[in-house]
Give the backbone structure.
Amino acid sequence: MYFRYLGRELRRRARSAALVAIGLALGVGLVITVTSYAAGVKAAQGQVLSSLYGVGTDLTVTKPATAGTGGGFRFSGTPSSSAQAGQSFAQDHLTSAAGLTTISDSDVTSVSKLKGVAGATGALVLNSVHITGTFTGFGGFGAGASATPTPTPTPTATPTPTASASPSASAGSGFGISTFSVDGIDPTEPGLGLLSGPNIASGASAVDQWFTDVQSSNASDQTLALVSSAYAKQNSLKAGSTVSISGTSFTVLGVVSVTESDGADIYISLGEAQSLTGDTNDVNTIYVTADTSNAISTVQTEIQKALPSVTVTSASDEASNISGSLSTASNLANSLGLGLSIAVLLAAFVLAVLLTIASVTRRVREFGTLKAIGWHSRRIVGQVMGETLVQGIIGGAVGIGLGVLGAFLVTKLSGPLTATVGATGLGSSTPAGFSGGGFGGGGGGGFFGGASPGAFSSARPGFAHTFTASNHSVTLHMTAPLSLEVFGVAVGLAILGAIIAGAIGGWRAARLQPAVALRRVE
Amino acid sequence: MYELKKLSRVYPKGRGKVAALSGVDLVIPDGEFITVQGLTGHGKTTFLLMLGALDKPTSGKIIFDGKDLGAMPESQLVDVRAQNFGFIFQNYNLLPTLTAEENVEAALVPLGIPTAERRARSIAALTEVGLGDRAGHFPSEMSGGEQQRVAIARALVKEPKVILADEPTGNLDEVTSLEIVALMEKLWKERGMTLVLVTHDTKVARRAPRTAVINKGKLTMRDNRAPKVTTPGPAKPPV
């Protein structure tokens, strides 16, 4: 009886029922399309962000160097005596990444104890500059611009194409310069930082082995290193090879590739890194993970409160640096798309409510009669709600079709998106990697400005990226992924709208006094 | 049995009030057939709605089988209606989307009767009013007289104690009206239920032993069996 009555009543009011269902379908379709579009944009943003930010890290704490502090090393090309003229030389300089200054080890402990922090680990992000060459004469390295012994840089590590300075950059001088990046990783925190599980693209077993070995008390294990696949390829390194960092030899345990673009060339233990730099008990980066994603902003605030002088960077900070058509698409999805979806859904809800109320008003005699023959109000409300519920389900089903079509059209019709990430933020140490006098200082003055205060502040790993790519563009193809959850939510919204309409219409029907209802038709 | 004591019903109208019923005292024994007459707007329908527990008095009491209907909440009144009263309306008030059989069955739904039994009883009721072969037809496929027969079947199917008919012949031609009234009288006699019939038609009104005449909310009873009455006596079976 219930379903026969319901079905026939809907057929009788087919036009009105169709209008409600179509309204809800449009709302649902738009919600699905916009949600899938937003998911596509989010995925695209994720792709961009993944090149900047670690999955296993929610926040990165660094301490920017204040003006006049830090800087790099000074190198003088002037031999200390005439006896050195014509002799070859090699120098290693291991310094903190540009723009970063040290943070006390105790601050890592402080951060790890903050509310909402799941874990925190310190790291030393370093840059090694290796210079080789030959003293050409007393009074100025490279002076006269004639002595050009072939520099023999060893190793010629150029992690990024423009990372190395060309000898020819300095007039007539003969030297070689190479840089590579070194990260000192805390072996007691394998789940955090650059070498945490989610960040490992390849070489996970080597990483596991490294953590196990370095944590052991065996002294020889302390000088085990991991090298990046790019660095290994450039320098023909493999497990068992030896690399020299600031005069200390490290045995390569394995080759690893991380998902982050600011991964280092060489990974060693934090203790060794601290020994090499003399920064015992200091780090220059703290990687933090929050208990939940919701806690990230709170944790960020807490860290900032506890350590006022540090810079705390989160993924969302990185997102804010993204510009280009991806950013436009994101804004479109977040503002216009969401607004339009809400507007259409609200309009559909209002339409459903109004049409249901109109239907109840037209059926006053019907409901009055049913009450007269003994139907309880709840049965009548159930009948009205059942009718609107069917409209909602039909609207939801049609809406899914429209949503899928919309998502398909978005994928098919939208062109490639570009995203440009600004140089600020994590991994983008100060673009002014050079400070002070200047690289390749004036002629006669010699290489690095001779004895001038020319200083080279080494950038952090991947400093070429920093130097040459103050902006980083990525081209992406837009997708609009669909999920059962989205369908569920969308259909749920349609049903919710139907229930609201049915509840309001049913409430009016329930309030109807049978005498009034029957009189109204007299 | 009904006992109406000083029953009044006042409706607000504009800034003033209108007394649809005023101080009505009446006793209707079980199984009586009474008709109700009066000018339009003088309180006939209000009187019927009161008897059917579809409206509540402003003052006074309406007692049905010992229960004060005016004091009962709607949740209880609806059960009283479902079990005791059968309504017949001038406009038939059939649900247009349901067939004749389903319209009749709708009266049994609140009683919690199983579907099969509901259908059987509905068909039987339709057969009793002469529409056994029209059970599957929709109201729009039936004449006014047939629709009113369906309404009568709907009122009778639950075997109520009281049938309340509000001008059941108001929309019918004379011949059909007589047929409907004759049918109702027949059923009243066979079943022994109370029948209250509102009508404008004096001929119809005089077929009942008593007629309640309502004039501006005041009710007076007329005995149709008195010798001066020229119309056929009460409860006389139709020709």
